[in-house]
C-alpha cells in the first residue's frame, strides 16, 4: 500500500489523515511494500552501478513452462528410438535445413530462422519450481542470506527503471494451487524492494485506485505538500524530506496511465490480439497455470512501455498421464503465442532488444509409463530462445538416441543466464550485486553460450 509517511493526526471525524493518504497496495515478492519503499531502495543502489544507463532499453521475457515439458515431444524428437520411447509425434521440417521439431509447432517451424534451441541443459535440481529458471542457481546457493536474486530483481537493482512510471520487473504469472509454479522470480538477498510487480488480482484493483479518483489524488498531493512544510521544520537532517520525494514519485506512478495502458489489452489492435489467441479453453490445468496466451501480448506491451524483465508461467506440463494429449493442447497454444510474440517484436523493430526464452524446470523420462505419460527427468532438458543478441536458426547440444542425457555440449542453467545477461548488455563475468554482508556476488556462475551470440 502506498502510504504517505508522517505522524498520524486524528481529526474530528475520527479518521487518521495519514491513513486517509494510503492509496493502493502493491505486492512485491511475498511481502506487501509501499511503492515508495521500492523507489528508496532503487535510489540507494544507483551509486553502485554508475556505468549502466537507466534509459538503455534491453529486456527479457521469461516464459516458464511449469511442471517440466517433455523435451523428446517438442524440440528433440527421437525417431530412431523404440516405440515405448519415441512416442506419438512426427517431426516436421523447419525453414532452417537440418532442424526438425514436433509437428505440433508448425508456426514456429516456419520462423525457425528467428529461434534457437538448446537440447542439452543439465544440472536441474529436480525441484518442482522455477527457481533455476529465474536465477540460474540452485536453492541452496546463499540460502542463509535469503538466496540468489532472480534476473528481474538483478535488473531492477543494476539498471533501474527505463520509465519512472513503469516497474522494471513485472510478474504476470497467475496464482496457482502449486504455488511454486506461479513464482515470478524471487528477490533473494537483495530484499523485497527489488521483487516483481504483480498486476494480477488485488494489485490490478489497486492500480485502478479503487474509490480514489485522480482529482482526489491530486487533492491528497496538495495536502501532502502542506504536511511537508510543517515536517521539514522538524526534520533537521533532511531525512523526511528525502522520503517524501520517493513517496511523491510513487504517487506519480499511480497518476500515470502508462502502466495501466500497457496492461489494458482492449487498447490493442483486434487483429494483433487474434494472432496471439487467448489459449482457451484451459485444459490440463489442475494445480498449475492456465494457457493464457494473452499474457504474451501483455508482456510485449509491458516491455514496449519500459519494463526490463517480464516473467510468466504458461500451462501445466507435469504429464505423468496423457502426455501426448497434453502436448497437443499446450503445444498448439504455445506455438501460436510464441510465434506471435516474436513476429510482433520484429514488426515493432524490438526483436533485437528483447530476448525471449521458454523452458521448464526439467525434462521428462524417455520411457512412456503405463498411463501414457512421462515422469520427471532432471538429467536433461531443453529451451527455446529468440531475439536479443541470440542468433536464430541454431541448435546447441544434443542428447543420445534415447533422449536420456546430454551426448555433447552440455549447457548449465548458469550458462543460459550468462547468455541472457550478455543479451541484455551486461557483462556476466563482471556484473555483480552486493549481498547483505557487503560482498559482491556475481549474477551467474556460467559462461556465455558462444554458438548463440
UniProtKB/TrEMBL annotation:
InterPro entries: Alkaline_phosphatase_core_sf (IPR017850), DUF1501 (IPR010869), TAT_signal (IPR006311). Pfam families: DUF1501 (PF07394). PANTHER family: BLL7424 PROTEIN, DUF1501 DOMAIN-CONTAINING PROTEIN. This is DUF1501 domain-containing protein.
